[in-house]
């Protein structure tokens, strides 16, 4: 009792017991379940997954969506999902009560919450990558297969490709290096391996953050912005900052440290629709259209956006 | 009322709170159904009816969460009582040797490296390993020149806490560009029991229960140590050995609690004080009282955390909100004394 053996055993024995029992408990308590075919009570936990599913199935197959998906100015499918119940965050009890047969989650959903949902026998489809158009297409096809809506998924992918082709043709031959673009959102910018980087590139511009070696979404200092001297600055309004910063464009133009930056001097600071630039759904192609229009205004009229397969009559908001 | 009765009543309070914890949640399930589900799970007797999804909620979500609240709160209360007895300082805390900060660093590292995304247990396991390693490092450093004084141990603990906290802050700052990662880190650092399962019970349970049984055997030694090291030595207690063993086991218990719940401030600090008022200073009563008191406090805090807002308040915020004013009160009382 007084030596070192007993306290060590007091610690190591329980640890050993836990170690032996963990795999057993994991196996006993995890109930893996495949989604029933085809799922008719689908829950989308995030905005991106709600936008994916809303275009693939009628809303009567959607059980609930993230509250963000029903907000105008944030969601591309707000009007489509107007009557669908909304949920905030991941509450397993609330979800179990709804008896969903498929739950859609993304990289942003807490892993612990997903583990719990799976332990409770709820089928979860989690999309972990959506920082390229190729990956978004893959996500659409995967979801199409899971819910047996392959044809509609193919139509959505074709629409994405047609839209990007229209932009590519319109900006072909333009001097890409002349449009030095900086994406700026509350001291953060988008560098290499981000969807924003791909969007700027496809729209016929150069992403300065990427050129500066910034990876992912990272803070950028005032000093670096001045040194990079962008010719165009694009902004978007994040949901949280709405109201607090009603005029982010005005705030940027009033920054005294940036007064000699070309984009500020020439007034080329553009506020783009949040729902296009922030989404990780097929609607992200619309941000490429928005960007092409502000980078190359002379070709704006010639960009012919194909009608969306789910909503042929819908129109898209442009930049301000 | 005798102390045994008081302890029994505290136990009954914990049992009542545990039942309430199983009964309250976002989904409405009748008390009859909850009782029937629990009885059926334990004995296979059918004493009522329920929907399968209700059984899942009770058995997979609420019950493990309740058991973890009891183990974590109890473990922290127990470790706090032992630390305060060992250091003869009412402001001593279970994380005194940097165990909590080390655990926090381990958990944040698991999230930062992406291990947590592939293996859900990576967070508690790494937290546990780092918490134990931190406590061990502090003890080894403090004892390098022989039997350490209380002040040396405290200072070594403070130094290690600072290093581990700096490591945590560094990882958090590296993650600013990946907000989903940073959000997960912050959520863990703020403490909470959301999403916990039977796996976590298995991880924390044996160490807390084993630790309690071991520490309780030293109740009389802790009483003697309260009179000072000389008094304890004169009573035949090998002070350095007893102190080393108790520190080791109390820190391991703290490490286990930090691993599954994140950093929950003040539970281990305030509970032993309240229990001392009810049971007196004798550790024979103080240790089980602190265990039950900690369990009750955490069950109450968790009930508030999951019902006060439409989302869920992080548990660490609540324990700090409860403990902060108490801490002030304690300091004021000491100043008056």
Give a verbal description of the structure:
The complex is a heterodimer of chains A (320) and B (337). With 320 residues, chain A is α/β, with parallel strands linked by helices. In chain A, 40% of the residues lie in helices and 12% in strands. Chain A has 13 helices and 11 strands. Chain A has helices at 5-29, 47-54, 92-97, 111-119, 133-146, 150-171, 195-202, 208-211, 222-228, 248-253, 262-265, 274-277, 285-295; strands at 42-44, 62-66, 86-87, 102-106, 124-127, 180-184, 188-190, 206-207, 217-219, 232-235, 269-271. Chain A has a 5-stranded parallel sheet, with helices on both faces. Chain B is built from 15 helices and no strands. By secondary structure, chain B is mostly helical.
Question: CATH superfamily of chain B, called what?
Answer: ABC transporter involved in vitamin B12 uptake, BtuC
Low-pLDDT stretches of chain A:
239-245
Indicate the mean pLDDT of chain B: 88
Largest beta-sheet details of chain B: none
The proportion of residues forming helix of chain B, as a percent range, comes to: over 70%
Rg of chain B, nearest Å: 20 Å
Supply the number of structural domains of chain B. Answer: 1
Q: Quick one: CATH superfamily of the largest domain in chain A?
A: Nitrogenase molybdenum iron protein domain
Task: Give the averaged pLDDT of chain A, no decimals.
Answer: 85
Helix content of chain A: 40-55%
Question: What is the count of DSSP helices of chain B, taking H or I runs of 4+ residues?
Answer: 15
| End-to-end Cα distance of chain B | 28 Å
Number of E-type strands of chain B: 0
Per DSSP, the total helix count of chain A is 13
- Derived from helix and strand composition plus strand pairing, the structural class of chain B reads mainly alpha
Q: Helix- and strand-based class of chain A?
A: alpha/beta
H and E order of chain B: HHHHHHHHHHHHHHH
* Quantity of strands of chain A, as a count: 11
Integer tally of domains of chain A: 2
Q: Biggest interface, which chains? A: A-B, 46 and 50 residues
List the secondary-structure elements of chain A in sequence, H or E: HEHEEHEHEHHEEHEHEHEHHEHH
């Amino acid at each position: 009792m007084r030596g070192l053996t007993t306290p060590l055993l007091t610690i190591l024995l329980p640890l050993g017991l836990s170690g032996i029992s963990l795999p057993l408990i994991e196996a006993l308590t995890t109930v893996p379940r495949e989604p029933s075919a085809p799922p008719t009570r689908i829950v989308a936990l995030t905005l991106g997954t709600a936008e994916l599913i809303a275009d693939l199935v009628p809303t009567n197959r959607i059980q609930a969506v993230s509250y963000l998906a029903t907000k105008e100015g944030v969601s591309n499918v707000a009007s489509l999902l107007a009557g669908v119940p909304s949920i905030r965050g991941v509450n397993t009890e609330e979800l179990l009560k709804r008896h969903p047969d498929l739950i859609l989650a993304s990289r942003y959903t807490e892993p612990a919450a997903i583990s719990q949902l799976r332990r409770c026998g709820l089928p979860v489809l989690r999309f972990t990558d959506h920082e390229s158009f190729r990956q978004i297409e893959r996500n659409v096809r995967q979801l199409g297969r899971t819910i047996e809506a392959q044809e509609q998924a193919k139509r959505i992918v074709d629409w994405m490709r047609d839209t990007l082709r229209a932009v590519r043709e319109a900006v072909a031959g333009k001097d890409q290096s002349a449009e030095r673009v900086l994406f700026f959102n509350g001291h953060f910018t988008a560098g290499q391996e981000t969807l924003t980087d791909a969007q700027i590139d496809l729209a016929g511009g150069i992403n300065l953050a990427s050129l500066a070696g910034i990876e992912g979404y990272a803070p950028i200092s005032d000093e670096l912005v001045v040194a990079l001297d962008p010719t165009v600055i694009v902004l978007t309004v994040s949901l949280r900052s709405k109201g607090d910063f009603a005029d982010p464009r005005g705030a940027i133009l009033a920054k005294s440290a940036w007064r000699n930056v070309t984009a500020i001097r020439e007034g080329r600071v553009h506020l783009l629709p949040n729902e296009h630039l922030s989404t990780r759904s097929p609607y992200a192609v619309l941000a490429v259209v928005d960007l092409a229009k502000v980078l190359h205004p002379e070709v704006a009229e010639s960009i012919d956006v194909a009608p969306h397969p789910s909503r042929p009559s819908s129109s898209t908001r442009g930049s301000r | 009322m005798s102390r045994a009765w008081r302890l029994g009543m505290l136990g009954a309070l914990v049992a009542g709170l545990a039942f309430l914890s199983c009964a309250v949640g976002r989904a409405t399930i009748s008390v009859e159904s909850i009782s029937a589900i629990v009885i059926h799970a334990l004995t296979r007797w059918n004493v009522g009816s329920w929907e399968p999804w209700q059984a899942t909620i009770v058995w997979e979500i609420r019950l493990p969460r309740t058991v973890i609240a009891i183990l974590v709160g109890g473990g922290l209360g127990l470790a706090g009582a032992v630390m305060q007895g060992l250091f003869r300082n009412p402001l001593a805390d279970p994380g005194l040797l940097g165990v909590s900060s080390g655990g926090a660093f381990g958990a944040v590292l698991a999230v930062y490296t992406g291990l947590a995304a592939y293996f859900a247990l990576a967070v508690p396991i790494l937290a546990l390993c780092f918490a134990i390693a931190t406590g061990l490092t502090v003890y080894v450093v403090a004892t390098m020149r022989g039997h350490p004084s209380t002040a040396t141990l405290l200072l070594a603990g403070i130094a290690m806490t600072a290093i581990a906290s700096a490591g945590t802050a560094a990882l958090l700052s590296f993650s600013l560009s990946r907000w989903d990662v940073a959000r997960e880190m912050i959520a863990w650092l703020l403490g909470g029991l959301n999403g916990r399962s039977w796996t976590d019970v298995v991880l924390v349970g044996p160490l807390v229960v084993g630790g309690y049984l071991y520490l309780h055997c030293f109740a009389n030694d802790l009483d003697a140590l309260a009179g000072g090291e000389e008094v304890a030595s004169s009573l035949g207690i090998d002070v350095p050995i007893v102190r080393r063993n108790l520190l080791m086991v109390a820190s391991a218990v703290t490490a286990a609690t930090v691993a599954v719940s994140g950093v929950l401030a003040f539970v281990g600090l305030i509970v032993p004080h309240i229990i001392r008022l009810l049971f007196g200073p004798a550790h024979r009563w103080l240790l089980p009282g602190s265990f039950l008191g900690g369990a009750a406090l955490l069950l109450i805090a968790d009930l508030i955390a999951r019902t006060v807002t439409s989302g869920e308040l992080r548990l660490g915020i609540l324990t700090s909100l409860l403990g902060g004013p108490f801490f002030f009160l304690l300091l004021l009382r000491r100043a008056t004394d």
